[in-house]
C-alpha cells in the first residue's frame, strides 16, 4: 500500500512537472529554432517569420527519416523564396541525424545544419558546424549539380568529401540531402500551396 501511494505520488509529480514545463519548452524550442534557421538561408532576402509558415508531414512520407518531417516556407513579401526542411538521415552510425536543409526556389541548397545526432565525438560529430566546416560543402549545389550518380561521398564515386575515419555519417547526410532535393523538385508547388499547418493534417508528400 505504501509503495502504491509513493508510486502514485511520483507519477503525479512527473505529470504535473511535464504540464508546467511543456509550454515553456515549446517556446524555447521555437526561439532556438528561429535563431538556428537563419544560417540555412545564407544569401537570401526574406522577411517572413519563418516558424509561422510551418508544415508538418507525418510519416509515412517521401522525405528522409521515419519521424514527422517539418517544412518552413520562406517568403519575401508574398513571394516564396525558399523552403527549409527538418528531416532525419536514417543511417547515421548511432541512429537518425536530424538535419536542417535550406533550398531556394531554383533548387539550390542555401545551407545545411545538423540539429541533433548521437554520432561519436571526434569521428561523426565533425558534421556539426561548431566542429568543422564539412557541412558547408553543399551550399550552392542542386539536384542536377552534380548529376545523380555523383550525389554521393567520394568513397562511393561521388563529389562530396567524407570525414577521415568516418564515412558512415557523411554518407547518411549526403543521401538525406539528395532525397530532400528530389522531394522539393517533385512537390514544390504543393509545398507552397498548402495552408499553414495544423498538426497531423498535412497531406503534402504523405504516402
Ligand atoms: C567506437 C566507434 C565509433 C565510431 N563512430 C563513427 C561515427 O560516428 N561515424 C562514422 O562515420 N563512423 C564511425 N566509426 C567508424 C565506422 O565504423 C567505419 O569504420 C567508418 O565510418 C569507415 O570510414 P572509412 O571509410 O573512412 O574508413 C566508428 C567506429 C568505432 C569503432
The bound ligands are: flavin mononucleotide
- Low-confidence stretches at least 5 residues in length (pLDDT < 50)? 198-203
Q: Strand order, biggest sheet?
A: 1-2-3-4-5
Q: Termini distance?
A: 50 Å
**Tally of individual domains:** 1
Helix and strand succession? HEEEEEH
Compute the number of strand runs: 5
Helix content: 25-40%
Please work out how many helical segments DSSP would assign: 2
Kindly report the average pLDDT value: 89
Structural class: alpha+beta
How would you describe the shape? globular
Question: Hey, roughly how much beta strand do the residues contain?
Answer: 15-25%
Largest sheet: 5 strands, antiparallel
Rg, rounded, reads 19 Å
Can you give me a brief rundown of this structure?
The chain has helices at residues 2-37, 168-193; strands at residues 54-57, 69-76, 79-89, 97-104, 109-116. It is an alpha+beta fold and 207 residues long.
Verbal overview:
With 207 residues, this protein is an alpha+beta fold. The chain has one domain (40-193). 30% of the residues lie in helices and 19% in strands. The chain has 2 helices and 5 strands; from the N terminus they run αβββββα. Strands 1-2-3-4-5 form a 5-stranded antiparallel beta sheet, with helices on one face. Residues 93-94, 119-120, 123-124, 155, 162, 165-169 line the site of flavin mononucleotide.
